[in-house]
Protein: Cytochrome C
Amino acid sequence: MTNNVEEVICLIKHGKDGELLVNGKLYNQRMPGVETLTPLEIAEISTYIYNTWSNDHGLIDVKQVELVLQDCITTKKE
Structure:
């Protein structure tokens, strides 16, 4: 997670189906997204995640979130 901010942003917004490996443990359940969140809200949530639990990533910018979300939409359509 700490190395893939883009994937976390997409997960927050769109959720995920299928397998997900977390710290060596395999999960295979639907993780619902929250499609109603704005880019600002996703930036705030991501900033919290990446600066809590001994993480020190810094600010996740709204413009970065907007760009990532455009890629998420493109990837989902393919």
Observations:
- The two ends are 24 Å apart (CA to CA).
- The chain has a mean pLDDT of 87.
